[in-house]
Amino acid sequence: MVRLGFIVALIALIGVLLSGLAAYRVHDQELAIDGIALARAIDVHASLVQDRLTERELLARVASGLFRTSSMVKANMLQPLRSAIYAFKTDFVVAAWIARLKPNELTAAEAELKAAGFTNPSIRDFDDQALDIKALDKPINVLMDVEPRNPETLSIPGRAFDRHSVVGPMLAKAMANAKPVASDPVPLLRQNGPVGVVLAAPVFQEGASEPAGFITFSYELSSLMLTNDDSSLFAVALKDPRDSNDEFTSNEQGIVTSRAVRQDGPLPSMVRTVTFGGRDWSLDYYAKSNATVRAQQTATIVAAIGLALTGIVCGLFGYVAYNNLRLSREIEVRIGFERRLTAVIDELNHRVKNILAVIQSIVTRTLRHGADIDGARELLIGRIHAMSNVVTLLSESQWQGVKLKGLFESRAIPHADRIAVNGPDITVSARAAQSLSLLFFELASHSDEGLSLVGKHPHIVANWEVVGEDADAVFHFRWEEFNTSQATRRADSDFGLILLDRVAPEALGGTAKRYFTDVSYVYELTAPMDTVVDMTERDRTEQFSAPLRPVKK
């Protein structure tokens, strides 16, 4: 009896020890996995927020760089930029031109606002109260143009924002720093409007030490920083830069509210800092579930099961072994995901650098010294539209190529309605699509200087074919403009000649030639299909987009 009791006690002791060990291991592993998942999700969200903020700040810098202030009192100053700012597809609430006007320019500004059709053309204070213009002795910042123009925004122009508690200091700081500056959170459009921030970029006339005005973009906090997903592991709040005891949160409907931070409330799980408009913003992340409680509950269940099955030692070891294998596979999947994410980021950085290099070349060649600024602006916007169109097509196909006929869409190619396109609808690689998109734009943009010698617009035919098979396949492209001659066709720009004769052929590993016949202008491009299609690039992209699977053991 004593011996049996000893054996039972020994088995019970072994069961208790094994159950306790299993509960301890599961508790730690659950905490570790939850911590890794939460930290990774927060890092990804903070990185996306920073990328979104950087993109908005880049838009402001580009807009201010393209802006030309021939006269500050005009009420349609945003007209040349409207197509450019919409090409970025950023979700701004309103874009505005705020001119820095001298007292003697205010009367002309009122007349300009009235002629532009704004509902209240008088120069007034930011709160729509009357402003004594005769008492002014220094320049003031007056809103002169808005985009979009709708019934809600048409009443805004004419307001002076120097005494606004938020916008006024922001404009003063932007003028002092000579770079984009973001405001404190403020209601947009109206007193009870959505909470957001305003980004102001100063615009300088050539040789001037003070800005002629400011390009501003207003964004809602809900879409810019505080987007919360119902299935996410955390809730995010923005620390109020004016008071560390307050923070902004967003609900499922995207409505942003301010709340006081409770001293006895839960502390944020993590804090991340993002940069926007020359200042730092703190994001507080609160875990939606208590990982410690959940881990303790899991450990309690494991311990209860272990104590209940103390007589089945093998089953207990099997259960622990299965748990360890499952957790090990999950960790391997997470490691594999991070490796793949790193590879994707490297690939994306490479492609973004290539695109930025192309855009830098476009801007440098287009805005060269001595170029006509109006014509250069149109060409620059058109070329960037062509690049934007091909990037959109590549994004829709997950960067696995673009259908060649898709590059002839009217939104990116001038006179697309007069181009007869013939040829197999092959899928070209990302690199080839970028070169061909710019090539088609350059050819089309110079194809219609006016009526030809026979009194007709040129009729354009774009043909291509693939000759040969497999490794010997060759891509032939022919562009022919009928009813045109060297006397009627606009001469190609320096950038266009370099693109047609050298850049596009070299990018595709082929050759090109252009010439005039008796009745037409012809451009021909020949390249091997290996560089036009580039299966290596497509296979690499397919590997990135393939679903991640756990390692089999």
From TrEMBL:
Q: Which residues cross the membrane?
A: 301-322
InterPro entries tied to this protein:
CHASE_dom, CHASE_sf, Sig_transdc_His_kinase_HWE
Q: Which PROSITE patterns match?
A: CHASE
Q: Which GO terms describe its biological process?
A: signal transduction
Which reaction(s) does its UniProt entry say it catalyses? ATP + protein L-histidine = ADP + protein N-phospho-L-histidine
Q: Where does this chain mainly localize? A: membrane
Q: Which GO terms describe its cellular component?
A: membrane
Span of domain CHASE: 171-225
Q: Which SMART domains match?
A: CHASE, HWE_HK
**Annotated keywords:** ATP-binding, Kinase, Membrane, Nucleotide-binding, Phosphoprotein, Transferase, Transmembrane, Transmembrane helix
Q: Where in the cell is it found?
A: Membrane
Listed EC numbers: 2.7.13.3
Question: For this protein, what is any one GO molecular function term?
Answer: ATP binding
Q: Which PANTHER family does the record cross-reference, listed alphabetically?
A: HISTIDINE KINASE, TWO-COMPONENT SYSTEM SENSOR PROTEIN
Query: What name has this protein been given in UniProt?
Result: histidine kinase
